[in-house]
Amino acid sequence: MKLEISAELKYIIRSPSTLILNIHALRSQRQTVLEEALIVEPYVKFEELSSPYYENRLIRMELPQEEEILISYKAIVDNFYRVIDHTDLSDVPVAELDSSVFPYLYPSRYCQSDKLYRFANNKFGHITNPFLKVLTLTNWIHSHVQYLSGSTNSQTSAYDTVTELAGVCRDFAHLGIALCRALTIPARYFTGYAYKLYPQDFHACFEAYLGKEWILFDATKLVPLNGIVKIATGRDAADSAVASLFGNLNCKDIRVSCEMAEQNFEPLYYDPSNLKGLSYL
Amino acid sequence: MKLEISAELKYIIRSPSTLILNIHALRSQRQTVLEEALIVEPYVKFEELSSPYYENRLIRMELPQEEEILISYKAIVDNFYRVIDHTDLSDVPVAELDSSVFPYLYPSRYCQSDKLYRFANNKFGHITNPFLKVLTLTNWIHSHVQYLSGSTNSQTSAYDTVTELAGVCRDFAHLGIALCRALTIPARYFTGYAYKLYPQDFHACFEAYLGKEWILFDATKLVPLNGIVKIATGRDAADSAVASLFGNLNCKDIRVSCEMAEQNFEPLYYDPSNLKGLSYL
Amino acid sequence: MKLEISAELKYIIRSPSTLILNIHALRSQRQTVLEEALIVEPYVKFEELSSPYYENRLIRMELPQEEEILISYKAIVDNFYRVIDHTDLSDVPVAELDSSVFPYLYPSRYCQSDKLYRFANNKFGHITNPFLKVLTLTNWIHSHVQYLSGSTNSQTSAYDTVTELAGVCRDFAHLGIALCRALTIPARYFTGYAYKLYPQDFHACFEAYLGKEWILFDATKLVPLNGIVKIATGRDAADSAVASLFGNLNCKDIRVSCEMAEQNFEPLYYDPSNLKGLSYL
Amino acid sequence: MKLEISAELKYIIRSPSTLILNIHALRSQRQTVLEEALIVEPYVKFEELSSPYYENRLIRMELPQEEEILISYKAIVDNFYRVIDHTDLSDVPVAELDSSVFPYLYPSRYCQSDKLYRFANNKFGHITNPFLKVLTLTNWIHSHVQYLSGSTNSQTSAYDTVTELAGVCRDFAHLGIALCRALTIPARYFTGYAYKLYPQDFHACFEAYLGKEWILFDATKLVPLNGIVKIATGRDAADSAVASLFGNLNCKDIRVSCEMAEQNFEPLYYDPSNLKGLSYL
User: Fold this and answer.
1) Whose CA, among A212, B141, B278, C59, lies 20 to 30 Å from C175?
2) Which residue has the higher pLDDT, B203 or C79?
3) Does C146 touch chain A if contact means CB atoms closer than 8 Å?
């Protein structure tokens, strides 16, 4: 499935600064970047960093002078995904879990799973099929948390959202992750470009580790699950920020687009009566 | 420097459980485990897990039945460390930081550096030598936070400690880490066995990334810095817990010892008039 | 209904201190203190303070020297209550609310109703009869929050309990109050001696202002609602602490008793099919 | 000292609502309202509520229909204050404190003095003169907390501000109050009109109970202490909100003015070398 994505970010630099961007489409076995270009105006040198721990592609740029810069990224991406039947799935006990996923089992800055243990287990602990368990908690978030732009800020965490019941995609994802981890299901934050997201912006959702695969979930239900271009995964937004700013600089404008570059797209959403999950990796 | 360490942990298992222990001395270039033994009574099978992301040695054991078990670990470790002069050290700007240390620059569960930015920069931002900066904040923690057993719990974080001003070694370390990160200095949690710690227990302190080395700091000042056997490092206690429990089981007793196995030990503490830091790795 | 109550408190004083106790049975129109005695050994002077704002009887004592003191309070109380039918009750709109109850409508230290607005309204906002609304939220607390001694501390607030779902009578009361206020129903903290409470201790529950009466609710359901001797009411436990300590002193022991001093007691609990509420004042 | 004050508030009402305003100049022994007028356009009936507990003048209005209303308040106020020399002031021990000020000694929603005990006592506990103690903590807030519009929201409390070190007048006042209470000095929230406040708005500061008088402090230092018209006092902003909204309505605009109506105004600020405090009541 080919998608055409773009992002334009405008920054005002007031002192020598460093900017780390995480807006490039990930290159992976299932996601091929056919074409891409990053243009910075006026010209600034930048480097792409390898990421030993997390799946992402970081661009670091030094911004030595006061000015306004415009960063434009464009790419055409070919994206594969698998649909996996989880009807017969049973829990992977911790005793069999691959230790590489342990980091996604422990609490993190915005996903205090340690504080949600009783809540998660009371509400969802009785569901035996782990896919249905995550799907049910995703649906619970969708029906209980109000999507409300501007209702949260960069400090808002899953512990706030579970009570305040309002937020944006980032908050929906953090709560989903925290609930999974409280149920001993590894889960991680996922950022991407999303087809049919209105208004267009970077999107955040999450992956749960089920049956030795990372399965995608999106409690916002704003977009079809199979129209997403992955940028990065991490423990939560602290790891996977679209931009990390060091110095005195501000983002003035963000424009994002994500269009289907081929025909015959059939949108996929989950259905509790049919336990099929989607995996990008 | 040879040290003899031991740990005895007693658990009561009430239902089939999984236990992940992180009590083994780390094997590293500078730390050689000369002898070691782990005995579980009654006998339980266990496996050592490789750790792709974090430096630790995890032991996982399945505990299928209701019983009381006693886990005994003993080792003799030969430990090297370097003393590095930081007199001429200058900040490594983010623009030159190796991306492998980025995970230690972002906020984590117990180290909300994003909330301490103004505090850290107001108090310590003016200090130009980064070793002196971290040493000064370590001394600030030591003189402002009261070491008080039982004053905190497993949910206590750096954000609490900076105001409540009481805690144990874990809290001292979390606050040190959070302040470093707020000053754009990567920092990580460090657990170990510590010579001359009274009462004996597992110890926690932290490492800051200075001049491309991980330098040890301990705001508790309870032990000489060169009498420590490293167990693990991680983002914070969420990553590096001595024990992670899954199931209905309880720790009933912990006994730890750490003795010098050679003579001529000269205890090393930091001195602000002499900018020498200690690195174990 | 006559009840015999007693409280014995042992304090260790380490420096000159002041102690304010709130353990006396309230004297009110509906509660007559037939006999009472307060004995402090060794003898210390104390005074009873009038309470202009809150309904309580405060005893203040100066403790000038290092020693151990034993405070013994005993009383026989005659207690009246009314059972009020709320079948036809409708909301008192804020526009008609007596301004004397406003303090019980706003958030307080342990009852952050401002943060629970969406939660309370989503869950209970649709219930039209205000008695049934409060009864339903009381039942929700009872069935979702686990009564667990030692699970909380003096800093635990309704905002914690609504997520962590464990606590003691104080936490149950704080959550009930916060939910009422979030629903624009004035609510206040209530402390007392409770018949049939095991193990015996001071008890906490809450009153909601319904139909111009303060109606008693107890989310713990540990005791019959009509076997309670009121000590005090306030905004939350910050106002109505059994003891406020100023100086270096510690409580070493508390013993409480509450016995029925007459026969024919018929325990009263609420029943959602029969909207009758109990009012002590 | 005569001052001319005014406030204009514009609300959009989207459903039948109740609005409680607290914008009237307080009538007290030391503050005489010479003239005043409240006009609501289009006309809406309103009532002034007596306040049994708190010193304020509440206006309640029912807003039955969807519309935009403009509320205009104007007054001329004659204001007296006393300047009190605190050079020889010593602490009023709790043992001698009038019980009517107890509510201002306990923690409240935005002033969690119970969490700031160690912080306050470490930093300010050694200062023996209580006026100097409060003046010193006020100066500490002024020099450590950045006045930054938009940095906080309606949930921000003293516990946040003491670490995050940014806020507006409300946050400065809450932190001052919390620190006083942690030092066993009763303190309360104070709202008013302030001469020379730029940009003009309602102002918040606090009063500490020293030597049996309520003495004014303002950690923002934005205005002369003797150019203030008192609106209300309370435990914190939960008690003394300028406006409490019940229903679906929004404030669209606020305009405030405060002008001196007589000549020869000599601005008064505190001076640590001269322990004179100002009391309005």
Assistant:
1) C59
2) B203
3) yes
